[in-house]
Amino acid sequence: MALSCSLNRYLLLMAQEHLEFRLPEIKSLLSLFGGQFTSNQETYGKSPFWILSIPSEDIARNLMKRTVCAKSIFELWGHGKSPEELYSSLKNYPAEKMVPFLHSDSTYKIKIHTFNKTLSQEEKVKRIDALEFLPFEGKVNLKKPQHIFSILEDYGLDPNCIPENPHNIYFGRWIADGQRELIESYSVKKRHFIGNTSMDAGLSFIMANHGKVKENDIVFDPFVGTGKASRKNQKWRGPDENIRANLRQYGLEKYYLDVLVSDASKPSWRKGTYFDAIITDPPYGIRESTRRTGSQKEIPKGIEKCPESHVPVSLSYHLSDMFFDLLNFAAETLVLGGRLVYWLPVYTPEYTEEMVPWHPCLQLISNCEQKLSSHTSRRLITMEKVKTFENRDQYSHLLSDHFLPYQGHNSFREKYFSGVTKRIAKEEKCSQE
Fold it and tell me: Where does the UniProt annotation locate this protein (predicted)?
């Protein structure tokens, strides 16, 4: 759908990490705050410079209050592939949009940002002086200006082949910075309690943003962790080492509802829609085993059965079954429009998009890859509930082979360690030659 031409144009300066995750994050947050992408805005690839059409500056600011994939946003005043094109573009920018920020009572400064090239101070001053045709009437204040303007130059992505002249030059008014500092302040290294599989802070924020989590939403993680302490040389967990204490550490304890111990393969909730988002990282069977509780009848032949009063040994819980249960649970308990965000481990040589689990009540929103090794990766899958769940029996056919092309994930652990073994053997062979 095309956006109105009256929308303002903004320039996003993106971080150069988790490249596949950036577009779904920005699209989700824009949708959350009342904006949307147009089709021609999905071609930026690895570039750190994105031009967006956004309905208002308020939406732009709200976007930056949440994003960890973007560094800054600017109201775009001009753009060109050469200085001359930039100046021409700036001269065509409506004067009435400039005046509120350039009047005589205002203070300002101009900054230079270059991507993939370093400029000398002399070169920077020359670029600033070339903008003297703009109607600046205020005073320069380098320490605490009311308004900050930036010249941003893009010299491409190849550090080994830096062009003499930039591919693109932008000029804009700085609006706000993103939340990149949260990645450091919430770093797992500083966290009081961590488990064996605690999620990287940056990816955690990305997952929440993909899930369109907003204030007062109820969010559920059905695979929150084993509760085991994983600090080096630490065998036992301390009394204050728990999820609630972590939230207390960050001043977020008031958002804690509760934690329960249950088997994800067995329904333990009353029928109903409880959650605005389900965000989780299921076990892959590598650092944490994938097991479920079973009944006496389910114990394989040849294994001695336990007394009736005793809970039997846990049984294998195949990844395909786990994802079938997870999608069914999400379809049943999410509100309409609620989102499921989860990690899907894959063996890269065999992966196809058809392997991604699906459900009639859930629509696939995004599918982003994070490489784990040369032969394995995990994909962050985001789905949105678009249809009311009726009953579990209606979806039992989804367990048939026809609907389970992702059954190959059941051997992910064996393939993962097979690849590790081959890599070690190859390294040992190379060291002996």
Answer: Cytoplasm
